[in-house]
């Protein structure tokens, strides 16, 4: 039986990966800070991490946070994976981490390099932003009567369950290095995404486009975080919003 461990296995992406990997032919272990029996803080590592990796063939590394600590967590994971003889680590990254000088992107790129130099078999999949993240951002910006949006910035949101399908496929294969990027089906202006959000939620907000400064903003404005040539996702942002609204009406 193949044993696969999913870090961040209770998160937005990880829980879907776990669901897709669980079959009679596989044991899937869920690792997070609070998930028993593999409750581990990757930033600390230690004997609990070693125990979680004992007998594991493949790791799908979904655990990540923009609040910091990803490099330390990945370093601990790689060291423990070496000790345990893990054959394959699959990592989810972001389109543009090598082009956009944004702190979280730089961290994700550093983790990619760490895996490349780890001596382990590895696979890296870069995707565009999840629909869930775009919704979170728009909710935050829509709290005031005026919704400010970065001027001349586009996005290409992708459905998280489709990303989970791809990660599960990669996890059941051999190490493949950096695979083709995965983008959502449409490159959209932030304004169009915001207006779809406002329409579905029934909110009325004045949408204002605000020019920003800095190298990261210039890279986002240039589209360095997009993958129009890899628009392989199927689910649109409107379909995502409609499905969430339906679940809310059903009490789910």
Automatic annotation (TrEMBL):
InterPro entries: ComplexI_NDUFA9_subunit (IPR051207), NAD(P)-bd_dom (IPR016040), NAD(P)-bd_dom_sf (IPR036291)
Pfam families, per the entry: NAD_binding_10
Molecular functions per Gene Ontology: protein-containing complex binding
NAD(P)-binding domain segment(s): 8-132
Name listed for the protein in its UniProt record: Uncharacterized conserved protein YbjT, contains NAD(P)-binding and DUF2867 domains
